[in-house]
Design brief:
Blueprint lengths: L11 E2 H24 L6 H21 L1 E4 L3 E7 L2 E6 L3 E4 L4 E7 L3 E4 L3 E4 L5 E12 L2 H6 L4 H19 L16 H16 L4 E13 L1 H40 L7 H16 L16
Antiparallel strand pairs: 1-5, 2-5, 3-4, 3-6, 7-9, 8-9, 9-10
Helix pairs in contact: 1-2, 4-5, 6-7
Subcellular location: Membrane
Keywords: Membrane, Transmembrane, Transmembrane helix
Main location: membrane
Length: 296
């Protein structure tokens, strides 16, 4: 399929043509009134009849060529079905009346897609939706290379969101991978790039996009919530144990360096056990006084 590219169309200022239109209308009225009040000869009648036929015809031609373009709007000009160019000049414009004029907005459009159910990278069903800010960059492609560019945008956004949703896992704590929930900027940038590639054929460009809704599907939401809670507890426990081990090691090293107490392997193991219980326990430790020795 041959791609249509936007080019500048010929058009002129509508205000200039409006002045010409008013001047012709004034001359026509003046011609009729002066001919009726004067006593013209027979040789003036053909000229009068010609003027009252040609001048109204010229007024009709001029009047048919006017059209209005608002800011951030364009008009595609066609001649008997052939694309002649695009006029992006705002205000009152004028072209020949036999030229077709199709207005198209080049303003930014905001679209929130519907919630889609997609399987993520690990096969978990999730619900995902996005917000896309797009605009028409090439009016010729938007009007003539696709049947309905707005419907085309809707379908391509849905396809791109499904594609992005299946490339990454919803969430991941263990492997530190790129996820839909934790890497919003990276996922949004990749979604924008894919949309620009898909919509290039329609002359559409995407300025900004991002995910507006992301959740597990209802049928697995409860199970995945428990899994997230378990992973969070495991991660917290791991950090707690790592911190406790470093504190115990520091305490034993300082006791040995400062000769506070001499610890044989059995006493050292007992102290390590007690410190780990104190540091890792969820409840406050209850002190126990030992009035004897460790071996009694």
């Amino acid at each position: 399929m041959a791609s249509t590219r936007e080019r500048v169309a010929w058009s002129t200022s509508g205000y200039l043509m409006l002045v010409i239109f008013l001047a012709l209308a004034f001359l026509l009225v003046l011609r009729i009134t002066t001919f009726g009040t004067a006593a013209p000869g027979d040789d003036a009648v053909p000229g009068f009849l010609g003027s009252i036929v040609l001048m109204p015809l010229a007024l009709i031609v001029i009047a048919k060529g006017f059209y209005m373009i608002q800011p951030n709007q364009a008009a595609a000009i066609t001649l008997f079905g052939s694309y002649r160019g695009t006029d992006r000049n705002a205000g009152l414009r004028w072209v020949w009346p036999w030229m077709g004029k199709t207005r198209i907005s080049v303003r930014a459009n905001n679209m929130v897609s519907e919630k889609l159910k997609v399987n993520d990278l690990r096969g978990n069903p999730i619900e995902i939706a996005s917000n896309v800010v797009w605009r028409v960059a090439d009016t010729a492609q938007a009007l003539f290379d696709v049947d309905d560019y707005k419907a085309f945008v809707v379908v391509q956004i849905e396809s791109a969101v499904r594609s992005i949703g299946s490339r990454y896992p919803y969430d991941d704590i263990e492997h530190h991978e790129v996820t839909l929930r934790g890497s919003h900027e990276q996922v949004g940038a990749e979604l924008r790039d894919e949309l620009n590639q898909r919509l290039a054929v329609a002359g559409i460009t995407v300025d900004d996009c991002g995910l507006t809704h992301l959740a597990y599907a209802p049928e697995i939401a409860g199970a995945m919530l428990r899994r997230q809670q378990a992973e969070a507890v495991i991660s917290a426990r791991k950090k707690l144990v790592e911190g406790a081990v470093s504190m115990v090691e520091m305490a034993l090293n300082q006791l040995s360096e400062k000769n506070v107490v001499e610890l044989d392997p059995e006493r050292r193991a007992t102290m390590v056990s007690n410190l780990m219980v104190v540091l890792c326990g969820e409840r406050e430790a209850q002190p126990v006084l030992n009035t004897g020795t460790l071996y009694q």
